[in-house]
Amino acid sequence: MKWPFGRKQLAVPVTPVTTIIIPQSSFDNADTHSVPMAVVDFVNFVMREAMYLRDEIPNEALLSYHVDYYLAQVNNGGHGQFAGNSGWQEATIVDIQYGLLAMGLDEALEVFEGLMLFAHEDPDRFVAAAEAGGFGDIDPIIKDLDDRFFAGPSMQILAGNDHWLRTEAPLEIVPDTEHRARMTALADANPMRGQRSKS
After folding, report:
1. What CA–CA distance (Å, rounded) separates 26 from 38?
2. Could you say which of 64, 119, 120, 145 has the lowest number of CB atoms within 10 Å?
3. Quick count: other Cβ atoms within 10 Å of Cβ 71?
4. Comparing C-alpha atoms, which of 27, 24, 16 is closest to residue 50?
């Protein structure tokens, strides 16, 4: 039997990644950014290099990753910059909302849900603020959210993220000398890696 040209490759079942692999030195480091940063590195690798999909990696990794992204964006240029740079992607927004909730960061969650409410109730004005990206005349609603964020949450999120990861996330802590090999093995274990990297 001859296969027709241009036949579609069939998807192969992918075994989900069940742990978040980080190096021992990151876990041992008392700096509250050390473990969240190791998780950011993990997510970047498994999604961009190893080509796993969202539902194939631990949800805790994605929540932490996007909470850290929110913190970095707002610290750098306020909620206007975050809204613009994030593209207001639904998955990102949901991850941040549930991440802040899971971490018990009530004040930060209240501010973030204020931004969500702005986007829902006045979408045209919200889009204008997002397109401004934190530059020029800052919308009063964005200014208020920024002020509330920098009054407390900006100094609480990192420690909250760190504590939650250390106590609740499925971390797999490996010796630094084995970390690269373990990550490479994850990539090699994804039977869809080659096909997805071409699409």
Report:
1. 7
2. 120
3. 23
4. 16
Give the rounded distance of the alpha carbon of 175 from its chain centre. 24
SS3 10: coil
- Strands (DSSP E) along the chain, which ranges? 20-23, 171-174
What whole-number distance in Å separates Cα of residue 70 and Cα of residue 74?
Answer: 6
Element (H, E) at 77: helix 59-86
Tell me which residue has tokens 């200014």.
143
Give the helix/strand (H/E) hosting 171. Answer: strand 171-174
Do residues 158 and 32 make contact, with C-beta atoms less than 8 angstroms apart? yes
Task: Write out the H or E segment, with its range, that includes residue 21.
Answer: strand 20-23
User: Quick one: tokens of 139?
Assistant: 């919308």
Instruction: State the sign of the Cα–Cα–Cα–Cα dihedral 166, 171, 173, 176.
Output: negative
Amino acid at 20: I
Max alpha carbon distance in the chain (Å)? 70
pLDDT digits (tens, 9 = 90+) for 79-126: 999 999 999 999 999 999 999 999 999 999 999 999 999 999 999 999
Q: How many residues does the chain have?
A: 199
The 3-state DSSP class for residue 170 equals: coil
